Amino acid sequence: MKVVRFLLGLVLPPLGVFLTVGIGPTFFINILLTLLGWLPGSIHAVWVIAKREEQLSGGQGIY
């Protein structure tokens, strides 16, 4: 599921963010960034998804 969220974050940024954090301020920020351009929305989406995965894994990273 993680790979799907990352791919959706690149292709359809708001959908990737929605599947990661649901509806909230982060989702609406991503919609605004996506309206400004696909690239800012995609960067924000990948960042949000990566941060959420880091939080879920305990912040220890991959070793």
Automatic annotation (TrEMBL):
<dbReference type="InterPro" id="IPR000612">
    <property type="entry name" value="PMP3"/>
</dbReference>
<dbReference type="GO" id="GO:0016020">
    <property type="term" value="C:membrane"/>
</dbReference>
<keyword id="KW-1133">Transmembrane helix</keyword>
<feature type="transmembrane region" description="Helical">
    <location>
        <begin position="7"/>
        <end position="25"/>
    </location>
</feature>
<comment type="similarity">
    <text>Belongs to the UPF0057 (PMP3) family.</text>
</comment>
<dbReference type="Pfam" id="PF01679">
    <property type="entry name" value="Pmp3"/>
</dbReference>
<keyword id="KW-0472">Membrane</keyword>
<protein>
    <submittedName>
        <fullName>YqaE/Pmp3 family membrane protein</fullName>
    </submittedName>
</protein>
<keyword id="KW-0812">Transmembrane</keyword>
